[in-house]
Amino acid sequence: MTTEEYNQSVDEYSDAVYRFMLKNTQNEELAKDIVQESFTKMWIKRKEIDGKKARSYLFSTAYHQMIDVYRKENRKDDFETVQEQNYAHDDQYSDLSEVLSEAVKKLPEIQRSVLMLRDYEGYSYQEIGEITKLNESQVKVYIYRARLYLKKYIGAMENVI
Length: 161
Prior knowledge:
- Pfam families: Sigma70_r2 (PF04542), Sigma70_r4_2 (PF08281).
- Residues 99-148 form the RNA polymerase sigma factor 70 region 4 type domain.
- Belongs to the sigma-70 factor family. ECF subfamily.
- The protein is mainly α and 161 residues long.
- The chain contains 8 helices and no strands.
- The chain folds into 2 domains: 1-80, Rna Polymerase Sigma Factor, Chain: A, CATH 1.10.1740; 94-160, Arc Repressor Mutant, subunit A (Orthogonal Bundle).
């Protein structure tokens, strides 16, 4: 990767990587730190990286950086320990976007990440597998489970509107 390709990737992908990290971490400062660290790692390894794969490298690096941060802080929740009452949303509320954001926050980290890569960033199952180091069928299963959880959480549309 040349310096010009690196600078171009900063211009093209920094916002997308930041949005992805912000949506996953729900913390602006942490998202900024992860994006900065990802670009730093890419700069260090720029001679080894193909300029055409910069986007994939950045998302993959940011994703793994986020995993490292969560592991260090021991914030990773076990999906099996989630209480059943947390699966349903009983309050009536009219802002579906806010309800959906709350539901996404409650997803396990891996499900949230693959769902965000697929539905918000538009990656294919294969690309998500490369980024997360999962095989394509695992990606599909995690996305299915995440969507099923979101459906249960939101419940009937009457509860949201």
